[in-house]
């Protein structure tokens, strides 16, 4: 059974079926904290587990398009056995979304990984620093504009 529709302060998001019976929502960054709180605290929704946080880089391909990145969250209800995927689009320049680490402890290291690989900042994160790469690593290796410097081996 698909999850019930999201109404109230979190309403007004673009939605479409996503691998039935799952639901996909697009949410503006500024509404993410309100939506996340409703998803977790509303007994009818019951999303008690943040499965993953990741990102997707969408470089500009035509003059009419805006280059952007998406932060993708997957929520799950253990009791109701339904999923919800929430996508938050951010600009490539100075990308930032609110942190969900205060609501879901599973967001802590996952947000750090997204920051480390894509350079997306999570406002309010308790310890936003690199987790996979060393502190001096130049750039964000999973962004499409990252220039890989080939390894050099001397004989």
Q: How would you characterize the overall build of this protein?
A:
The chain has 155 residues and is an alpha/beta fold. It has one domain (8-123): NADH:ubiquinone oxidoreductase Nqo5 subunit (Beta Polymerase, domain 2). The model has no long low-confidence stretch (mean pLDDT 86). A hairpin with a 5-residue loop joins strand 1 (14-17) and strand 2. A 5-stranded mixed sheet has the order 1-2-5-4-3. The chain is globular. The longest helix is centred in the C-terminal third of the chain and has 12 residues, at 107-118. The chain has 2 helices and 7 strands. It has helices at 32-41, 107-118, and strands at residues 14-17, 23-26, 49-58, 68-77, 82-91, 96-98, 121-123.
What's this entry about, in short?
With 155 residues, the chain is an alpha/beta fold. Helix content is 14%, strand content 28%.
């Amino acid at each position: 059974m698909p999850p019930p529709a999201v109404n109230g302060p979190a309403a007004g998001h673009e939605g479409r079926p996503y691998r039935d019976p799952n639901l996909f929502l697009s949410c503006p960054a500024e509404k993410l904290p309100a939506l996340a709180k409703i998803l977790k605290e509303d007994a009818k929704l019951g999303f008690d587990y943040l499965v993953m946080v990741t990102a997707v880089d969408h470089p500009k391909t035509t003059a009419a398009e805006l280059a952007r990145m998406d932060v993708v969250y997957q929520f799950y209800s253990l009791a109701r056995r339904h999923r919800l995927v929430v996508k938050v689009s951010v600009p490539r320049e100075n990308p930032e979304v609110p942190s969900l680490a205060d609501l879901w402890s599973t967001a802590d290291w996952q947000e750090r990984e997204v920051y480390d690989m894509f350079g997306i900042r999570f406002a309010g994160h308790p310890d936003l620093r690199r987790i996979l790469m060393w502190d001096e690593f130049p750039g964000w290796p999973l962004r499409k504009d990252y220039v890989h410097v080939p390894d050099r081996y001397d004989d």
